[in-house]
Write a structure and sequence with these properties.
By secondary structure, the chain is of the alpha+beta class. It has 3 domains: 122 residues, Alpha-Beta Plaits, CATH 3.30.70.3000; 57 residues, no CATH class; 42 residues, no CATH class. The chain is built from 7 helices and 7 strands. It has a 7-stranded antiparallel sheet with strand order 4-1-3-2-5-7-6, with helices on both faces. Helix 2 packs across helix 3 and helix 4 crosses helix 5. The N and C termini lie far apart (59 Å). Bound molecules: adenosine-5'-triphosphate (2 copies) and magnesium ion (MG) (4 copies). The site of one magnesium ion has 4 residues, from loops. Belongs to the tRNA(His) guanylyltransferase family. It catalyses: a 5'-end ribonucleotide-tRNA(His) + GTP + ATP + H2O = a 5'-end phospho-guanosine-ribonucleotide-tRNA(His) + AMP + 2 diphosphate + H(+). This is tRNA(His) guanylyltransferase. One of its GO terms (biological process) is tRNA modification.
Amino acid sequence: MAHSKYEYVKAFEREDKLLPNTWIVVRVDGKGFHKFTKEHQFTKPNDITALQLMNHAAAAVMKEIDDLTLAYGQSDEYSFLFKRNTDYYSRREVKLASVIGSLFTAHYVLAWSRFFPDKPLTKPPAFDARAVPYPSIENVRDYFAWRQADCHINNLYNTSFWALVLKGGLTENVAMKRLSKTVAKDKNELLFSEFGINYNDEPEMFKKGSTLVKELKPFTKESRVPIKYADPKYPVVRDDGPDHVIQEITRQETVVTELHCSIIDE
Ligand code: ATP
Ligand code: ATP
Ligand code: MG
Ligand code: MG
Ligand code: MG
Ligand code: MG
């Protein structure tokens, strides 16, 4: 069907290649997770297991797509950074966003029962996705600083809100009113004076979100090689038959490391 008379419909598609030499960021965000987290009774304000499931799904996406170098996640969202010169899907915006959105969702669903063995998945989670090209490394840094600032603001709010509701016995409406017009300092003060919570002591993952980086880690393995091809770089562990030796060779593997660190300049 290569050149059928129907093929003209392809001309309706729009060109959507993202600018070359720019850093592409794809962000996925849970669709209606306010409701989804209620439906699945997430611990408020932060369900650790749910955050770990997000990190797991993101790491799986990182491992699957070589050109992804870094990812940052908080709440129901994750941002993925491509290396500058990637040619993944010819840099087509919709392909990049849709394939990452769907891979992420698939890994989230696939691992759900491992993270929540006693909690059946009763509604299908979905993640929207967008792809944005950034022309300078400064823009990239500011992008991630923006997401981390969002994490901080929301987490301080949510920690205060749920302290008022769960520990203070306020209704959600009253708690919301109580927090309106408060600034960060007021919320820190409220947490400390009314609930004995020092916000600084909250877990780093909640306050800072999670950053995933790819690292090359060396590992060793035994390899059986003909004596005449043995590489003098590696130690010989033992002979194996008249013509072969077992060598301990060193290779590198890509591992994804999770950090809970500051991206924002202090
Ligand atoms: P939209 O479809 O527009 O994104 P949304 O309901 O997902 O709507 P968000 O702004 O993305 O809106 O907010 C995510 C919601 O999910 C927040 O209410 C947040 O508190 C909740 N949430 C996300 N992760 C967790 C978690 N690990 N534990 C508890 N609540 C969470
Ligand atoms: P790309 O990522 O570029 O789409 P692809 O391998 O998915 O690569 P497609 O042109 O989409 O390439 O082809 C889909 C492939 O899946 C074909 O090889 C097709 O035969 C196979 N396939 C799809 N559905 C079925 C099915 N129900 N039974 C057997 N094979 C299938
Ligand atoms: Mg959204
Ligand atoms: Mg959401
Ligand atoms: Mg969100
Ligand atoms: Mg296909």
